[in-house]
Structure formats: structure tokens, C-alpha cells
Predict the structure of Membrane protein.
Amino acid sequence: MTAPETEAPSRWWQALTVLALLLAIVGVASLAYLVIVRLAGGQTWNGLNWISFSALPLAFVLLIVLMLRAIWRRRKL
């Protein structure tokens, strides 16, 4: 009895995974920077707010899509 062959994930899905990871890291880093600077009484660039408040939800949605695809591939085996 041989083990079932699994297909290697395509480059597109790997790139999507890396993008989700990078968005999450950038979002958390910019949010941490915002909190630290604002608690110290400083002002930040308004675009930094936009980056932190849009990168984290987008990374979350991408991770959900990747998780659903992994579940679909697992059930297909």
C-alpha cells in the first residue's frame, strides 16, 4: 500500500501565504509604533493609521481563504 501523492502548492498560493504573513507583520509593527508614539505624546503620519487599520483585516481575510483552501485540499484526498 502506497501513500497518496499530494500535489505541491502552486507558486501563486505560496506567494499569497507570504503576502498574508508580511501584511500581518507590517500591520502589527505599525500598530505597535502608533501606540508607543501616541502614548509618548507624539504625532504620527496619518497614513500610518491607514496602514495598520487595513493591513491586519486584509491579512486575516487572506489567512481565512488559505485555511479554507487547505481544508478543501485535505478533504479532496
Q: What stands out?
A: The chain has two helices and no strands. Helices lie at 11-39, 46-76. The first helix runs from residue 11 to 39. The mean pLDDT is 89.
